[in-house]
Amino acid sequence: MIELKAKLHALCVTYVQSRMQAAQQAIAEAQQAQNDDTKSSAGDKYETGREMAQQETNRNLAQLNEANKLMVALNHIAINAASEKAEPGSVIITNNGNFYLAISAGTLTLDGKNYIAVSPASPIGYKLKDKRAGEAFILNEKTYQIASIT
Length: 150
Known about the structure:
This protein is of the alpha+beta class and 150 residues long. It folds into 2 domains: 2-75; 91-149, no CATH class. The protein is 49% helix and 21% strand. A 6-stranded mixed beta sheet has the order 3-4-2-1-6-5. Strand 5 (136-139) and strand 6 (142-149) form a beta hairpin. Helix 1 (2-36) packs antiparallel against helix 2 (43-75). The longest helix is centred in the first third of the chain and has 35 residues, at 2-36.
């Protein structure tokens, strides 16, 4: 099971790295567009174009900052530790899906099985946290029975 956790963790790292690369690429493109925008006789058009490029840069900087926070969260997860209760880094198997408690990264497919990477701060992550195998919880009128936690 430690190998499963390590592979899921690696998929989350890849997810965050791709988000960081996309944000960095978009920032570079916006800055290039801002630099290429030359002042014409229509000064307002120039200023509007530069402002739009600046707003795009700021939006992508915020996305890059969020991705950095996700990477920091991943770096604090101990993937070699086994636990009897759900905590960051745990793989939780329920009757309504398999979950990896780490960051919100959506569905991860590994060896033909789907795992949903969820943040401990998300609604389902909050319900999962500190639960043990055999316990159940209800979320959105759906009962989740925990079969195992690793």
